[in-house]
Amino acid sequence: MEIVRTDFPFVSLSIAIPALFSLLLVFVNERFIKPLSLIGSGITFLLSLCVIYLFDYSRGAAVQFYEEYVILQELNIKLSLGLDGLSLLMYLLTTLVSLVAIVWSVRDKQINFRLREYFFAFLMTESFLIGVFASFDLIVFYVFYELTLIPMLFAIGVWGYKLRLYSAYKFFIYIFVSSLFLLLGIVSVAVVHYTDKGSFSFSYFDLLKNSYPMGFEIFLFLLFFIAFAVKTPLVPFHTWLPDAHGEAPTAGSVVLAAVLLKMGTYALLRFNIGLFPEASIKLMPLMVAIGIVTIIYASWMTIVQNNIKRFVAYSSVSHMGFVVTAMFLLNYEGLRASVIEMFAHGMTSASLFMVAGFIYGRLHTFNMENLRGSVKFMPVFALIVATTSFAAMGLPGGSSFWGKFLTMLAAREYSYSLALLVLVGGFFSAAYVLFMLKTLFLDVREESILIHFTDIRGFKLASFVMLVLPMLLVGFFPHLFFNMFEGSINFVLKNLLGLE
Amino acid sequence: MDIGQLVGDIRIPRLELFLPELIVLITAFMLFTLDLVLSTRLKRVVLPSLSAIGYVLALMSVGITIQFQGNTFYGTFTNDYLGILVKVFVLIITLTVLAFSYKYYEAKNSFYGEFYYMLAFTLLGAMILASSYNLIIIYVSLELVSIGFYILTALLRGSFISKEGAFKYLILGGLSIALASYGAVFMYIYSGSIDLRGILSYSGQDYHYLILGLVLFLIGFAIKIGAVPFHFWLPDAYQGAPTPVTALMASVGKLVFFIPVVRIMPLIQDKFSVAWMLTVGVIAAATMLYGNLVALVQRDIKRLLAYSSIAHSGYILAAVAVTKEIGLKAVIYFLLVYTVMAAGSFFVVAMLERAEGWNNEIREFSGLRFSLPYLAFSFLVYMFALLGVPPTVGFVGKALVFMALSFDGLWWLAFIMILSTAISTGYYVRLIVLMYMKDREKNVTIMGKSYAELVSLVFLTLLTVALAVVPGVIWQLLSPAASMLFVR
């Protein structure tokens, strides 16, 4: 893997800026909190756009904007930050969704106490998330990965709904405990490097060169997998998610679904497939099976939900099933599908959670049936919901189309029956989305309580627009995004086929 | 025998190696004398300040001893990197104990001159225990520390649980000393030496004596560190002792009681690696699981922290089972940083105990963030550290233990450690949830905070994070310390 060092510390700056702004929030007057948070995440977003612009797409899998700072010489732990195509996309997603979450929170009526801590938590989460996607040292990755837990624990536990304490607990315990397996895996990989080469290293580039006996590689693969399967989440490790999402404040759900889940899938691709290619090939049937089960089981669960938040939560699980299935088909189309679907789902799930938040803000319930017939009174809102839903469903022109289409293509490479299963999954996802649209808008009620409601506007409209535009962008100009990670995917494939 | 020959044999001890201990010794005797002669009003000022001055001087002199390393007093006292590292932490923690105990006793309406000189003698014992291989010296310093703890535990004369705790501690402590010394006798019979290095490098015929001796000796220490199934005294003693003393016992006590084991760890493993791995591994597993499971159901915060302390003995023992050098490093690192976390968390409790109507019950932590935001925050840091969440020292400790276990392929122990950490999540996160996410039940206010307390608390909290973010500082001393012990 080629490394391109940078003169200007773009990556560490984009980690530092939200963190610095969040520290600033501790000291400022109450009325500056919201503007400062907006500025902080806004600057980070602009910085990420700069990075996207400056990124050299012709360099393939190269890690660019690379920086390195030694933390512990003796164990060779370095703060090594950089971006390749894969992390670039996730980085963009993080800055965008964080900004959206903060824009949304500015006008969220639920957030009317402990503002300082609230915005502190969200800015910190942004900073940690960028750290996760930009780290090329496994220990540093782990540290950021764990750190994201803390602000989220508080976001759910403090500003969540009725069962918030239970959900916060469950969220923390599930993810913290599962990631201990990851920690064990990471140090074991480093120990293997030590016994082979005689020196410690936690660097991703060094560890890529490790080779293991087959049984041990599978063992290590599983240690990593447990952590990421819980985070992603895959059935049967998903039970924390509906609770966490159901109880989190809107912006919390947005960040959770759009970015935090991607940590799991991103890490599966980067670490599981990257570091253990042979085990990945060996375990491929199992992984694909888990993916398919996740798609179908979660779709069923989605259809029966009345609570719109839990509905979106389960649909997220189902989408993650698509991502993992596509990823572990281990071919070109599959990998492309999984990455683009990660990004696409980031947009759609964030948007749908905001829909839920908007409904709650108006009606103080998450029950979808209460909103029946609202299309009459809130046409703009209905339009946004429809666009988002169609994009999530996989209609051409929407962002998820490419993910689902390519997944089917990839599955077809193996067998028709596999492709058929994916097709069934796609069918279900269309079913639940249409079901939701019907419940929300089309069932007309005689005497609507909605008649006095104004349509969406202002900050909330802006946050929707910020998501809908990229959704359509992915749908209509997918090559812009495919170009970003093409090189990285080729690298992963070469690594899998043993060409390097 | 010719007089000249006799005098010639007496070598002048290299006092420069012994300087910190000497300073503490002098301080202790001065405190003792002053306690006899001064009036109570003067004592209240003089004794704490004199102790503080003595400890600071001792801490500074530790820096001097770095350049003079080696053995003295006929090889019975060894000043090496490990000893120096331990002494630095022991002195720092004792200084903070001093800072917290003043207000604590004031709030309890009691003042004891004994406290100051017993603390100094305990400290002296701890420092000597940290730097000796000699069985006699270990025995004597172990007694010195233990007797100090018994008395300090029982110091709240009016309190029943204080006396009960001290009594249990005394009985089991006595048992442990007896076992350890009995073990020492067998080791002497085996090798004819009272130096642990000599004993373990001696290759005699009668291995049974060595094994018996070692087992008894180590059981003695297992009692001291509260390893399951020798832990029964610990929760009661921790609960009964005045809280700053509990902090001392949990941090300094645990640290120095482990040190002789750490010193002989590589030597024992040389002889009995498989048996060692298995025995210590099983004890570690039992200790982790038991400590965490029982902590889960505690209602009293001091007992909860006591059981968490037992569990931490288990984590450290897990690394003791490892026969590679990294195991030694993990043990030393975890021990050192545990002193900071444990002391810090008990100090928070010590401060809270001064609040009106505070009963040390866990539910009283509800909404503490609103009453005492800064105190709640530092407690939050300690809880995350004890749980092992980055970027705190607890995380680095656990990562190192995992690494050590992975080196030796002790996967079963690693999985048990994951399991027990999972259990511990329950109570640590519960405290955090109570403090930050529940409404307050009552308004907790602490009367009369002193600057010494605040500075100490801030310092310990920062240390909990800083030693993990900049691990190089501690590692530079830790690495040679471990390498010197681990000569294969």
From TrEMBL, chain A:
Residues that span the membrane, as ranges: 6-28, 35-55, 88-106, 118-136, 142-159, 171-192, 212-230, 251-271, 283-304, 311-330, 342-363, 375-395, 415-437, 458-481
Keyword Transmembrane: yes
GO terms for MF: NADH dehydrogenase (ubiquinone) activity; NADH dehydrogenase activity; ubiquinone binding
Compartment(s) where it occurs, according to its Swiss-Prot or TrEMBL record: Endomembrane system; Membrane
Keywords on record: Membrane, Transmembrane, Transmembrane helix
GO CC annotations on file: endomembrane system; membrane
Residue span(s) of domain NADH:quinone oxidoreductase/Mrp antiporter transmembrane: 136-428
Keyword hit for Transmembrane: yes
Entry membrane topology: Multi-pass membrane protein
Main location as per UniProt: membrane
GO BP field: ATP synthesis coupled electron transport; electron transport coupled proton transport
Family membership: Belongs to the complex I subunit 4 family.
Name the UniProt record assigns to this protein: NADH dehydrogenase subunit M
From TrEMBL, chain B:
InterPro entries given in the database record: NADH-Q_OxRdtase_suN/2 (IPR010096), ND/Mrp_TM (IPR001750)
One Pfam family of this chain: Proton_antipo_M
Enzyme Commission (EC) number: 7.1.1.-
Reaction(s) catalysed (UniProt annotation): a quinone + NADH + 5 H(+)(in) = a quinol + NAD(+) + 4 H(+)(out)
Keywords: Cell membrane, Membrane, NAD, Quinone, Translocase, Transmembrane, Transmembrane helix, Transport, Ubiquinone
Every NADH:quinone oxidoreductase/Mrp antiporter transmembrane domain range: 132-424
GO cellular component: endomembrane system; plasma membrane
One example of a Gene Ontology biological process annotation: ATP synthesis coupled electron transport
Keyword Cell division on entry: no
Major place of residence: membrane
Locations listed in the record: Cell membrane; Endomembrane system; Membrane
GO MF assignments: NADH dehydrogenase (quinone) (non-electrogenic) activity; NADH dehydrogenase (ubiquinone) activity; quinone binding
Regions that span the bilayer: 17-38, 45-69, 81-102, 114-130, 136-157, 169-190, 210-234, 246-268, 274-297, 304-324, 330-352, 372-390, 410-433, 454-478
Topology in membrane: Multi-pass membrane protein
Family note: Belongs to the complex I subunit 2 family.
Binding partners and assembly: NDH-1 is composed of 14 different subunits. Subunits NuoA, H, J, K, L, M, N constitute the membrane sector of the complex.
Protein name according to UniProt: NADH-quinone oxidoreductase subunit N
Species in which this protein is naturally found: Hydrogenivirga caldilitoris
